Amino acid sequence: MTESKVRRNILIIATLVLIFSGCSQEKKEPAATPAPRGTSMGKITYDTIILNPNADDTWTTECLSKFERKKLIDDIFDAVYAGKLTALDYFTRKKFTVNEVKAMEASGEFSRDRIGKIQFDEKWYWDEKNARLRKKVTAMTLGYEVWNNDSTLRGHKPVFRIEFN
């Protein structure tokens, strides 16, 4: 075989290797969420109003004007019903089955439209080098509005808790 034929064959083989290796259908695992950088400042729990109970409170209305409350709540319920998230009893941490959550929703005790508060559990990390605060949500609890007979807001009652790894 002549030297030019050898080079041509090597070039053809190299080209085929590149073509076939580039067309691989190998599935890759999704990248894990990187751990927050910095020094742990510990856990913090706080409530966030997501539905303004007072139509005269224009500040809260403005603060919530770009928040997609309905979509978030619907997505959370959809994920629970699909088994992607597990709903827990807020007080006992007992796992609810999907059917139990559906029954709770069907009972009429609460409505998604009345879910007005989320309580977050977060771990906070201070990155001193970059002067950055990073937060990781570890759990969230949905709460619905409870009203007094005189139409004043009494408070919020937990629907269920979701814990994240």
Written overview of the protein:
The chain is of the alpha+beta class and 165 residues long. It has one domain. It is built from 4 helices and 5 strands. It has helices at residues 3-22, 58-63, 69-81, 98-106, and strands at residues 39-49, 87-88, 115-127, 132-147, 153-163. A 5-stranded antiparallel beta sheet has the order 1-3-4-5-2, with no helix packed on it. The longest helix is centred in the N-terminal third of the chain and has 20 residues, at 3-22. It is extended. The relative contact order is 0.18. Residues 16-21 have low confidence and may be disordered. It holds the Pfam family GldN. This is Lipoprotein.
Top keywords for this entry?
alpha+beta
Structure in a nutshell:
By secondary structure, the protein is of the alpha+beta class.
Q: How would the blueprint of this fold be written?
A:
Blueprint: H1 3-22, E1 39-49, H2 58-63, H3 69-81, E2 87-88, H4 98-106, E3 115-127, E4 132-147, E5 153-163
Strand order of the largest sheet: 1-3-4-5-2
Main beta-sheet annotation: 5 strands, antiparallel
Tally of discrete structural domains: 1
* Total strand segments: 5
What share of residues are in beta strands?
25-35%
Distance separating the two termini: 63 Å
Identify low-pLDDT runs.
16-21
Helix count equals 4
Q: Over the alpha carbons, how many angstroms does the gyration radius reach?
A: 26 Å
The helix/strand class is alpha+beta
What kind of assembly state do the chains in view correspond to?
Answer: single chain
Mean pLDDT: 85
The coarse silhouette is extended
Organism: Prolixibacter bellariivorans
InterPro entries: Gliding_motility_assoc_GldN
Protein name: Lipoprotein
